[in-house]
Specification:
Blueprint (H helix, E strand, L loop, with lengths): L6 H12 L9 E9 L2 E8 L3 E8 L3 E4 L12 H10 L3 E7 L5 E8 L2 E8 L5 E5 L5 E4 L3 E3 L2 E3 L19 H9 L5 H8 L3 H12 L12 H20 L5 E7 L2 E8 L10 E4 L3 H62 L1 H16 L4 H11 L9 E5 L4 E6 L2 E6 L4 H42 L14 E4 L5 E4 L3 H11 L5 E5 L7 E4 L7 H13 L2 H4 L4 E7 L4 E2 L14 E2 L4 E7 L2 E6 L5 E5 L1 H7 L1 E11 L1 H16 L2 H7 L2 H7 L5 E3 L2
Antiparallel strand pairs: 1-2, 2-3, 3-4, 5-6, 6-7, 7-8, 8-9, 10-11, 12-13, 12-14, 15-16, 16-17, 18-19, 19-21, 20-21, 20-22, 22-25, 23-24, 26-27, 26-28, 28-29
Helix pairs in contact: 4-5, 5-6, 7-10, 15-17
Length: 663
């Protein structure tokens, strides 16, 4: 599986972040977080698009992301210092350095220019430079041969490689002549391409990749130059074809590589296309990173549950041991009483010997000799002169007898031990009840906790709502998603809506072959008008119409030009006049747990805690925060609300432009 971005990936990323619908130029920088040692997340406010997150993992990846790792409770020094220098600043440029795995992001704040340099080659770094390219702050202060990445030093790029985009036949001749490796390895290392793209260049050029580079002639070099130009032409023209390449892993098709353009070496592999390379990168890298965090959280939760199970097992083992030990002590006491006369005789004999002046060593010798003739002497296993006691083997039961005590007193010693063990057993039984009670409370707490469904649906990347009659209505968010809906998801049996005025998304009712009732048509008409430029302009009504899919065409009239996301509508239109704008936000809490938005009647049908909005004076983020606070107050569960209806998620469901909460 791909571990890090290639130079071609960085080129495609820089292209998207600096132009078109995915541009972050002029975006305002909000807070910066460091959720992992090599990773920062920059919260951005993009004009007319709301809040977004740029995730950068040094030495590995950079992309806009919807898969966010949780922020640490205590912020680290690096993001705090970045906030000091660039928070509230505005992004002025995003570019790649010399077709290398280096991304540069320009920032201006209060007339002061800075540059955030992102090194995506291993081991990677993130470095903030001033306008004279002196290092203000590195994520990781390091010293390499010829490079010092430390505050106050002038930033130096790593040793330059030959750019495959600008490479000439002379460049290839010189590189190949000096190489001791084969063609594919030489291209991979000297042209900063990596193994996959080097394989692709060889495949397109028809050159034997295993042939020694020194032996490639002028025809081979020309073929490689031609292959390089054709390979990277989409990166220069902006005609990207972002996709994930999938391979089977344990019976399941899983992402194996992410690409900004299609490669012939993967022609037989299963692929998933994406409208933007950022979206593909987020699905490949961001989703995996978020899932790894979730797995770790699940493991911690399991560990907490296992603590109770282990504690309970230890307590049960202790009770079993206490019970067995108490029975053993009682059994010894009973055996002592059962052999009362014999034990008393042994004690008396030993006492008399001591009274006559025999030493313990002499007594031990006498006992040893008497074992063959005196039966009771056989019972004595050991004599402890220091303690003044003897160990007797009473029919397999060993008992320690203190000769200074009477027989009942010796037996009582064992009864007392049994009593203490019984008390410990009773204490352990009570502890078990406490543990079981704690487990029950935890299980009850877990069962009472609101469950969050993490299931994702294909349409959630677009604007959407479910009508009161159960029909899915889906619309584009921008030019790219407009194109995607028409090309990928619109079917002949569907119904298409659009507004009379420009600035509205293509909206499709997914009929699945069923008759669509008037109520769904009315709701869709209100949705189309409300999520268009009509709302943005502060108007309270507008006109729209519906048509059939075959009336939507990408072919313009002769001499005309259609920009991306635009379509030609031909034929009769079915109008809805003077449709009132209205929208609402709600929470879906049964089955799927998520925030929903759309026409008020549809949201009330499927959601709870409905909040209506109207055109107003507050931007999307401010209104989203207000609604978020309402939900936290109503549900009294901040964590649950944050998971399903964070301000960012609520903002995604609001109409474009400024709004206010309807009182």
């Amino acid at each position: 599986m791909k571990k890090e971005m290639t130079s071609a990936d960085v080129a495609a990323l820089a292209l998207e972040l600096s132009s078109g619908e995915t541009s972050i130029i002029d975006a305002k920088i909000a807070k910066i977080y460091q959720p992992a040692p090599d990773e920062i997340r920059i919260n951005l406010f993009v004009y007319e698009k709301g809040r977004h997150n740029l995730v950068i993992e040094a030495g590995k990846r950079a992309h806009m992301s919807q898969h966010i790792r949780p922020s640490p409770k205590i912020p680290q020094s690096f993001p705090m210092m970045l906030r000091k220098h660039i928070m509230a600043g505005r992004i002025t440029f995003v570019k790649q350095y010399d077709f290398d795995r280096i991304l540069e992001i320009g920032v201006v704040r209060g007339g002061v220019d800075t540059v955030l340099v992102v090194e995506l080659f291993s081991p990677g770094n993130i470095v903030l430079l001033d306008s004279e390219r002196k290092i203000i702050l590195p994520m990781k202060p390091v010293t390499f041969k010829g490079r010092r990445i430390r505050s106050g030093e002038v930033y130096q790029y790593p040793e330059a490689q030959i750019s495959p985009v600008d490479a000439t036949a002379n460049d290839l001749e010189n590189v190949f002549a000096a190489s001791d490796a084969d063609v594919v390895r030489t291209i991979a290392t000297r042209f900063n391409l990596g193994g996959v793209l080097a394989e692709e260049v060889c495949a397109r050029s028809g050159v034997n990749k295993s042939e020694p580079a020194k032996e490639i002639g002028s025809d081979g070099i020309e073929a490689i130059i031609s292959a390089l130009q054709k390979l990277f032409k989409p990166l220069l023209s902006g005609d990207l074809q972002p996709c994930l390449v999938k391979k089977e892993d344990k019976g399941e098709m899983k992402p194996f590589d992410v690409l900004p353009l299609e490669l012939s070496i993967y022609k037989d592999s299963e692929k998933e296309s994406f409208p933007t390379f950022n979206a593909a990168l987020d699905e490949f890298f961001g989703k995996a990173a978020a899932e790894s965090v979730q797995e770790a959280v699940t493991a911690v939760k399991k560990e907490k549950v296992d603590i109770f199970a282990r504690r309970l097992q230890k307590q049960e083992d202790a009770i079993d041991k206490f019970g067995k030990d108490a029975d053993k002590q009682t059994r010894i006491a009973e055996v002592i009483y059962a052999n009362y006369v014999e034990i008393e005789q042994i004690i008396n004999v030993l006492k008399q010997a001591r009274d006559k002046g025999y030493s313990w060593d002499e007594i031990k010798s006498i006992v040893k000799k008497a074992k063959d003739t005196v039966p009771a002497a056989k019972w004595i296993e050991n004599i402890n002169s220091a303690e003044g006691n003897i160990v007797l083997n009473l029919d397999g039961t060993r008992a320690t007898i203190d000769i200074k005590l009477t027989i009942p007193q010796n037996a009582q010693v064992y009864y007392d031990k049994a009593k203490k063990l019984t008390k410990k057993k009773d204490g352990a039984l009570k502890a078990i009840e406490d543990t079981k009670l704690a487990m029950q409370k935890r299980e009850k707490k877990v069962s009472n906790r609101r469950k969050v469904s993490n299931k994702k649906y294909w349409y959630e990347r677009f604007r959407w709502f479910m009508s009161s009659d159960g029909f899915l209505v889906v619309a584009g968010r921008d030019a790219d998603t407009n194109e995607e809906i028409v090309k990928k998801y619109m079917e002949k049996r569907d119904i298409v809506f659009h507004t009379q005025d420009p600035g509205a998304p293509i909206t499709v009712i997914k009929t699945i072959g069923k008759d669509v009732p008037e109520s769904t048509l009315q709701e869709t008409a209100q949705f189309v008008v409300s999520y268009s430029s009509v709302w943005k302009s502060g108007q309270f009504s507008g006109d729209c119409y519906w048509i059939k899919p075959e009336q939507v065409s990408k072919t313009p009239e002769t001499g005309e030009y259609l920009k991306k996301g635009s379509f030609v509508i031909r034929g009769e239109r079915n109008y809805f006049r003077d449709v009132q704008v209205a929208a609402a936000i709600g929470l879906e809490l049964e089955g799927s747990t998520r925030v929903i938005g759309g026409p008020t009647s549809a949201v009330r049908k499927h959601g709870q805690h409905v909040v209506e909005v109207v055109p107003g004076k507050y931007n999307q983020n401010d209104v989203a925060k207000k609604i978020y606070k309402i939900y936290v107050e109503k549900l009294k569960d901040t964590n649950f609300v944050k998971q399903i209806a964070s301000p960012d998620k609520i903002a995604m469901m609001l109409p474009p432009g400024e709004s206010d909460i309807k009182v």
